Amino acid sequence: MVYDFSQAIELAKAGDNEGVAWLYDTYHHIVLRYLKWQDPRETDDIASEVWLAVAQNVKRFKGDERNFKAWLFTIARRRVIDMQRKRARSKVSFVVPETLYVYSSANDTAQDAIESMSAQEAVNQLVAGLPKDQAEVIILRVLGGLGVNDVAEITGKRAGTIRVLQHRALQQLSGDIGGQPGRAGGRFGGAGRGGKRSNIGEVDRNGEKL
């Protein structure tokens, strides 16, 4: 029986199907959520290609669980781009939210705000009104629990650019929630009424700048 990632990845690299099955059962749901946001019409087909690529290349994988999730999202993103190129699509469809949850804590940092979102909230509620590049940053941070440097590597952008995109996304979300577009406040940082200035730019729990 497989109990954790370390055991599963070693089994998978050795060609043991039980290890691959554990990885699939553990991470398939976050791959699906990401793909549904990116390209809901082809989710199942692309997901199958992602896991086929994992099975074919896992022997060469090196790293811990966080590295694996970054690798997984990198594969998924490349497969989406390939599919979109084939269909000559230029835009990604966003899931339109029915409601938007209200958060109201004055003392949380941007990192706390990201960690407080559930994966479903991130996909179905928070990113619908964001530009694609900002939305992708939030989704990768939430679904994958990835750091700024991981997201930068996946998207091919600089870490500083990722921080800027995250900052702008959280500002817009704060404005949407507070009914004051363009103003940052509330849980997502900024100097909102009664709130605390955002800590974006400071170091998070993983030693990376927000």
What's this, in brief?
This protein is an all-alpha fold.
Write down the domain tally.
2
Structural class: mainly alpha
Largest sheet: none
Could you tell me the number of beta strands? 0
Overall CATH class of the largest domain: Mainly Alpha
Shape by Cα distribution: globular
CATH topology of the largest domain: Rna Polymerase Sigma Factor, Chain: A
Q: Detail the poorly predicted runs.
A: 92-108, 180-203
Order of helices and strands: HHHHHHHHH
CATH-level-4 superfamily name of the largest domain: RNA polymerase sigma factor, region 2, helix turn helix motif
The whole-number mean of residue pLDDT values reads 76
The termini sit apart by: 38 Å
Proportion of residues in extended strands: under 5%
- The value of Rg in angstroms is 18 Å
What's the helix count?
Answer: 9
Share of helix, binned: 55-70%
CATH level-two architecture of the largest domain: Orthogonal Bundle
Structure description:
This protein has helices at 5-13, 17-38, 43-57, 65-87, 110-116, 119-126, 132-144, 148-155, 159-178. It has nine helices and no strands. It is mostly helical. Helix 1 (5-13) crosses helix 2 and helix 6 runs antiparallel to helix 7 (132-144). It has two domains: 5-87, RNA polymerase sigma factor, region 2, helix turn helix motif (Rna Polymerase Sigma Factor, Chain: A), CATH 1.10.1740; 110-188, Winged helix-like DNA-binding domain superfamily/Winged helix DNA-binding domain (Arc Repressor Mutant, subunit A, Orthogonal Bundle).
